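FORM 7B: Structural annotation worksheet

SECTION A. Query
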Amino acid sequence: MGNPYSNLQKDILKDESKLNLADAADLIAARMFPIIHGGWAGAVLFDQQAAYRLARQFRRLKVSREPILMSDGYFSQIRRKVYSKVPILTVGGPEANNFSRQLCLRHELLWYGTIAGIIERRRKPPIGYAWGPHINGTLKAVDDFESTHLNTFAKYL
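SECTION B. Predicted structure
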């Protein structure tokens, strides 16, 4: 089956005992981009798997930043250090993912429905999103993101 860890993940694991939250945020800002999913059970079971699928696609494109999956809860802890510095992708709708909820409120995005797209931010890297009102809608949105927005988003990485 091969080694499930990337070289970057191996580097992190090697020094894990010395790594604190601020260091992790700096590392993410320097070398990675977050793919954020909700942290509740249904989101972890389904949205996280859809996020893994997108991460694999980005790795196939050999983008320079390593995709790293994280829950919306973890992202909220490091947000200040990475929000303005790196492209961000969020998977799962506003009911399951707090970061998606914040995007809806800030950018007047569709709360219900199946949507995928990229928010262009002035002088900041973009935010990609893919979600639906339920798991089938989110999986459809991830399909849409892959077919329509993946290559454009990858140019920012």
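SECTION C. Observations
The helical segments are 7-14, 21-31, 41-60, 72-82, 98-107, 135-148, 150-154. Residues 20-154 form a domain with the Chitobiase; domain 2 fold (CATH 3.30.379).

SECTION D. Sign-off
Analyst initials: ____
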